[in-house]
Amino acid sequence: MHNSIILTAFTLITSTIAQTTTSTFTDDNGITFWNSAWDTTIGDGDATFGMALPPATETSLVAEYIGRLVIPIPSSGTWFGVSHASMMTGALLLIAWPNGDDVVTNLRYATGYVAPEEYAGNATVTTISSSVNDTYFEVTYRCQGCWSWDQDGAADARLPATTASAQQLIGWAQATSAPANPSEKDSSIQQHADSAANIFAVNVASARNTAYTDWITKTASSYPSATAAPSSIGAPFSNGTATATATATSGLTTATPTAVASCAANSSALSATYDYIIVGSGAGGIPLAAKLATSGDSVLLIERGPPSSGRWGGTLKPDWLVGTNLTRFDVPGLDNEIWADS
Ligand SMILES: *[C@@H]1O[C@H](CO)[C@@H](O)[C@H](O)[C@H]1NC(C)=O
Ligand SMILES: *[C@@H]1O[C@H](CO)[C@@H](O)[C@H](O)[C@H]1NC(C)=O
Ligand SMILES: *[C@@H]1O[C@H](CO)[C@@H](O)[C@H](O)[C@H]1NC(C)=O
Ligand SMILES: *[C@@H]1O[C@H](CO)[C@@H](O)[C@H](O)[C@H]1NC(C)=O
Ligand SMILES: *[C@@H]1O[C@H](CO)[C@@H](O)[C@H](O)[C@H]1NC(C)=O
């Protein structure tokens, strides 16, 4: 057993999460997981997330994994969410909660800091086993297409890499209230607790296992598909002031807006040659750089100002965002402040 890395999405959370430990764990199905346990501060005891991946040679299975959740249930009820892209918005989300003796799982998608809609794309989640007692729910599931999925024209691919040090970022969030109708897959849910959301990195090599192809035969075929019912948008996930699980290392990397400090420190960026150099990552520079990079040109986008969004280390934020990794640039509605002091 060794200590894991917690990629801190929210600085204050780090102080409340005593320690995340990782190990491998073999469950009652005989499935061996890369396993992480940590205190979400909700319910009594640690939450556990496990991931099993197919060997990299199984090319038809690259977009899937088997996941395992063991989640404490507070007396107020709960739901637990997993983001397959570490941030909440624009990501495939898996949400699970107890319903009597069963565990309901379903896939959702959030286009903004609003109630995530029911996911209608080609990824599926299928339960392998589950159990519920007074204080915990536990579910082992197969998530197919979950590293490469589409939704209403949006698509994303985050296939686990094959390098020895590869990591897969996972975001999570937990709520202190049960969904409005726990028996309904498309139930509305209340926002997760402010402090109960973070991201961590799964060590891909530790999760891969050649027995994976045997494990997926355990999939309970009778369980209803997650992509069934149409959405009913319920209570807001957030009231729009964005306390959610943003952040992480996503997005366009070809034209990377970086801070002056890190750019100047990257001497190879300064001596390399580019098809285009765009000065200023404003409302004109960013889309132009993205467009050019998408068409295959190499682009250097340079910016004099400080880092803006949280993912690049930005710090400009109103008091109510302190303790999150969000800045005023991440929050729709704060755009009238974006020019102040920057
Ligand atoms: C409830 O379930 C959890 C998770 O499976 C388990 O660790 C715990 O021992 C169970 N508690 C009881 C009282 O059976
Ligand atoms: C799901 O959609 C994505 C994005 O369009 C695509 O890359 C992937 O191959 C699709 N998966 C399946 C199983 O059809
Ligand atoms: C929205 O949430 C924020 C942060 O929790 C809170 O400060 C604010 O009062 C809420 N606004 C409304 C209109 O509920
Ligand atoms: C914000 O998130 C980014 C990307 O995950 C990370 O590099 C950075 O350290 C985070 N910042 C804080 C203050 O947590
Ligand atoms: C430095 O610049 C080079 C050339 O543009 C780029 O490939 C590399 O990723 C950059 N490194 C960092 C740490 O930003």
From TrEMBL:
* Highest taxon of the lineage: Eukaryota
Note one Pfam family from the annotation: CDH-cyt
> Mind telling me what this protein is named?
Cellobiose dehydrogenase-like cytochrome domain-containing protein
| Keyword tags | Signal
Can the keyword Nucleotide-binding be found in this entry's annotation?
no
Starting at the broadest rank, the lineage of the source organism is: Eukaryota, Fungi, Dikarya, Ascomycota, Pezizomycotina
Report the residue ranges that make up the Cellobiose dehydrogenase-like cytochrome domain in this protein.
25-213
Where is the signal peptide, in residue numbers? Answer: 1-18
